[in-house]
Design a protein that fits this description.
A hairpin with a 5-residue loop joins strand 11 and strand 12. Helices cover 42% and strands 11% of the residues. The chain is built from 25 helices and 18 strands. This is Penicillin-binding protein, 1A family.
Length: 721
């Protein structure tokens, strides 16, 4: 009742300010709704051809149901509904604080609401049109809600059990300013009622003005003027069409679409969506849209006091996906992350120093990631040489961008091989080969050093990263099995199997550094996959725990690889002697005092250079290259590029740790193997010890005669360490 009295009072208060046209329009709207309800009831009764007494019963039942529905509607929707006048007195938002694992503050989101009020007359027409085109093209024609939008939202609820979509600008205004961020039907109904009230009490230009001055554009920028100043260093009055389109696309998902977010290219994609909508609504010509798409948008330098910016944005995106944009921006969350700020600062300095030293070789960027394999905790994340270097797309987080991994992907191939008849001692011919696949060019793989090495064991082929044996192994069982293994181990980017051929084992399929960390972490965990986890604890403004990371039950590990296979691969990658032919005896892949499994990767066109390695306790991945995908002039794996970054960070991580060795699981056995034949050794050959899955070890011995023949004929060019 109080809501009805308030509404009547507001109507009487406003009646003198409304024109007769406005009052008549409201009367017609209400009359139309009542008329449609009466028409539906009458048609229903006529179709049923009910007797008079049954008509009275049904009518009474309908009135009772309407009475009950009205009461429910009041108690659940209207009773505690905010007044539209509250739009002028918004509660201040609470800041969300992001901390490292030791309680050091990394960044505060929305400590202040940076807002500068601006009248609608000062907002350029192309910015208004861009906003209306992407958010609410029928804004000036509806009464606060869109029938099509509601229908679309209902279909999402019914078909996909997903509450989303359908909001007009008026609904967005009341949702952001007056309601909670919960995603429920009750909240949507409240939003609808408030939108109708706001449309009745304010004219369209007033609503649009409030929207432009209150909506969040990301970061601390509330309102269009603050957004233009934050992103472009200029007033909203001076933004170009390209800049206006970028800004207009932000409110739908400020974190995801931010040009300073974890994936700045999404901002460009969203900008193009806005420009396309402007063309569809005939607000601009197609040529204007194309010119705007080609225009370079220059972003203002970001000078916020932020530590580990790529990691902070990565965490924010994860929080938004779990708790919603409003909760992160205004909910006063306290977030303890897994990051070690001291290690992070060391990693940033190491990446910047190595990239600077490689500038003569056309290397402009680098990235690094440090994790704890057993828990998936991220200890350091450096997404680029300099986050604030906008001229070189420093905001792009290479750690989460798909790049070609080169030979760093080979362990996935050999993980399949060891489960399909191969052993670490299997002999493979490293010799020229050409594959003629119908519909594809002939493929002739070559090794990184341009040479062929004759008969080599699988152990040596992987340790020295020989390409030809890897391709031959993959060809023996098929690309599909390697794709399936990669997906099981944690690769999320191999979703179009038809794109890949035998070059997949040499890095022909893009992967994310975060995915590679999960793959190698699975080897470190003896076959158990543990996804990366950047967040340890989240509490709300009242101190209530919303999320708690607990690794007491194995960190939700998923056994995806036999521990025997994982260990055999680890033993090969940690065999410093076996990789001497390719990398030398004193390469930076060696970490004195610790047994470390490590692998490098360089694409044939020198666009990507990787090093990734692990102990039981730490995993380090590093990369150098260029964001524009242009090739580097020269990089020598094990000497320059990603390896010095990896070596320095692994050394830092292990400096206070006791000497470490990988412990064989009970599921492997050893045997003395002849490297020339792959059989059990004899007295005439330089035997070495190899690990096997029980039952897969050779059963026959070589003979001195066979060894003598091999040496005399020169059939084997195997290198013996």
């Amino acid at each position: 009742m109080d809501r009805a009295l308030w509404f009547i009072g507001r109507v009487l208060e406003k009646i003198g300010r409304f024109t007769y046209k406005s009052i008549f329009k409201l009367f017609l709207l209400l009359l139309n709704i009542v008329a449609q309800l009466i028409t539906v009831v009458v048609q229903l009764v006529r179709r049923l051809k009910l007797p008079h007494f049954r008509f009275k019963t049904i009518t009474l039942t309908l009135f009772i149901l309407l009475f009950i529905a009205g009461n429910l509607f009041y108690w659940f929707i209207l009773k505690d509904l905010p007044h539209p006048s509250d739009l002028a007195t918004r509660k201040p938002s609470l800041s969300t604080k992001i901390y490292d694992r030791n309680g050091q503050l990394l960044f505060t989101f929305y400590r202040d609401q940076n807002r500068t009020l601006i009248p609608l007359s000062d907002i350029p027409e192309h910015f208004k049109l861009a906003t209306l085109a992407i958010e609410d093209a029928d804004f000036y024609r509806h009464n606060g809600f869109s029938y099509r939008g509601i229908a679309r939202s209902l279909s999402q609820i019914v078909l996909n059990q997903d509450l989303q979509g359908g909001s007009t600008i008026t609904q967005q205004l009341v949702k952001n300013a007056l309601l909670t961020p919960e995603r429920t039907v009750i909240r949507k109904l409240k939003e609808l009622v408030l939108a109708i009230e706001v449309e009745f009490l304010f004219d369209k230009d007033q609503i649009l003005t409030m929207y432009f001055n209150q909506v969040s554009y990301g970061g601390t920028a509330y309102g269009a003027e603050a957004a233009a100043e934050s992103y472009f260093g200029k007033s909203i009055k001076d933004v170009t069409l390209a800049e206006a389109a970028l800004l207009a696309g932000l409110p739908a998902a400020p974190t995801a679409y931010s040009p300073f977010g974890s994936d700045p290219y999404l901002a460009i994609h969203r900008q193009h969506q806005v420009l396309n909508r402007l063309v569809e609504t005939q607000s601009i010509a197609p040529l204007e849209a194309e010119l705007a798409k080609q225009q370079k948008v220059y972003l203002a330098p970001q000078t916020q006091n932020i530590s580990a910016p790529h990691f902070v944005m990565y965490v924010k995106q994860a929080l938004v996906e779990e708790f919603g944009e409003a909760a992160v921006e205004q909910g006063g969350l306290s977030v303890t992350t897994s990051l070690d700020l001291n290690l992070q600062q060391q990693a940033q300095a190491v990446v910047a120093s190595e990239v600077d030293s490689l500038s003569p070789y056309h290397v402009t960027n680098g990235a690094a990631l440090v994790t704890k394999p057993s828990t998936g905790e991220i200890l350091a994340m450096v997404g680029s040489r300099d986050y604030f270097d906008t001229a070189r797309d420093g905001q792009v987080n290479v750690v989460t961008r798909p790049r070609q991994p080169g030979s760093a992907i080979k362990p996935v191939n050999y993980a399949v091989a060891l489960q399909n008849g191969y052993t670490a001692a299997s002999v493979i011919e490293d010799s020229p080969v050409t594959y003629n696949i119908p519909g594809q060019p002939a493929y002739s793989p070559i090794n990184y050093d341009g040479k062929f090495h004759g008969q080599v064991s699988l152990h040596q082929a992987l340790a020295n990263s020989y390409n030809v044996p890897a391709v031959k192994v993959l060809a023996s069982y098929g690309v599909e099995k390697m794709i399936a293994m990669g997906q099981a181990l944690g690769i999320t980017t191999w979703n179009e199997p038809g794109r890949f051929g035998l070059s997949l084992t040499l890095g022909g399929g893009e992967v994310k550094m975060t995915d590679l960390a999960v793959v190698y972490g699975t080897l470190a965990n003896q076959g158990k996959k543990v996804n990366l986890n950047p967040i340890l604890k989240v509490t709300d403004a009242e101190g209530k725990t919303l999320k708690q990371f607990d690794c007491g039950f194995g960190c939700n590990s998923d056994p995806v690889l036999p521990d025997s296979v994982a260990f055999i691969l680890t033993s090969i990658l940690s065999d410093a002697n076996a990789r001497i032919p390719a990398f030398g005896a004193n390469s930076l892949l060696n970490t004195p005092g610790h047994q470390v499994a490590v692998k490098t990767g360089t694409t044939n066109d020198k666009r990507d250079n990787w090093t990734i390695g692990f102990t039981d306790d730490f995993l380090v991945a590093s990369w150098v290259g260029n964001n524009d995908n242009s090739p580097m002039a020269a990089v020598a794996s094990g000497i320059t590029g990603a390896t010095p970054i990896w070596h320095e960070l692994m050394t830092q991580a292990l400096k206070d740790q006791p000497a470490s060795q990988f412990t064989p699981p009970p599921s492997v056995v050893t045997a003395s193997i002849c490297p020339l034949t792959g059989t059990l050794g004899c007295s005439g050959c330089p035997n070495y010890t190899e690990f096997f899955v029980p039952g897969s070890q050779p059963q026959n011995h070589c003979s001195e005669e066979v060894i003598r023949d091999q040496i005399l004929t020169g059939a084997s060019s195997i290198r013996i360490e």
